[in-house]
Design a protein that fits this description.
Elements lengths: L24 H15 L6 H8 L3 H8 L2 H25 L4 H16 L10 H9 L4 H27 L9 H20 L4 H19 L3
Helix pairs in contact: 1-2, 1-4, 4-5, 4-7, 5-8, 5-9, 6-7, 7-8, 8-9
């Protein structure tokens, strides 16, 4: 009996790939971020995360680790996005008052966004609570607060060099006041204070920061 010879396999024939992933990691992480930001760490279950991301528990663990690791990755993502949204405003040259107005307006856009209501600031509304018992999250929170203080201090220092503020103005103190205003509007936005009222708070704070340091 004559056996039929098998056709030769082409050397450059592409190998078959495994089944493609049914999810996009960046999209899934964004969904997890939204959920943690809305509900916090303790109130968010693995079932909640699975439903929000469309991934089962084994897939979640394989892609992101346990719930704590996913929370930390979500917080890192939030900080990266917040930093990117304000980088140009901190960097570009403009009068101090205009710069502060744009920074706070950008912050309000972030805090008041959300399909089910204002989401506030991840650092203030959830990470600060977790920082009490988790040293890694505490380090991230402190790093974020320090980074914001330094960015504001640089703004006030440049304004002083340009003569917009007197030599007696302390950039570090003004920076802490600006950061405190950011944190205040983050909390108030979560409590559903209206944008109009939040903008009034911002205007008053800017008047103090710019007016208190203005030359008489």
């Amino acid at each position: 009996m004559v056996q039929k010879s098998k056709p030769p396999i082409a050397a450059n024939e592409p190998k078959r790939r495994g089944r493609p992933r049914a999810y996009e990691p960046d999209v899934a992480l964004g969904k997890a971020l939204d959920l943690f930001r809305r509900q916090g760490f303790a109130a968010t279950s693995l079932d909640d995360l699975s439903e929000a991301t469309g991934m089962n528990r084994p897939s979640l663990y394989g892609a992101f680790g346990d719930k704590r690791e996913l929370y930390i990755k979500s917080y890192q993502r939030y900080r990266e996005e917040a930093r990117a949204s304000m980088a140009a405003i901190f960097r570009e040259e403009m009068p101090l008052r205009q710069r502060l107005e744009r920074i706070f307006a950008s912050a309000l856009n972030i805090y008041l966004s959300g399909e089910t209501g204002p989401r506030g600031c991840f650092t203030v509304v959830t990470a600060a609570s977790e920082a009490v018992g988790d040293p890694d999250i505490r380090a991230m929170v402190l790093d974020g607060l320090t980074e914001l203080d330094k960015a504001f201090a640089s703004c006030f220092r440049r304004a002083r060099e340009k003569g917009e503020l007197p030599e007696s103005a302390d950039p570090a103190v003004l920076a802490q006041l600006a950061s405190a205003t950011v944190h205040s509007i983050a909390i108030r936005s979560r409590a559903r204070v209206s944008r109009k009222d939040l903008e009034a708070i911002v205007k008053g704070a800017i008047d103090v920061m710019v007016g208190a340091g203005a030359k008489s």
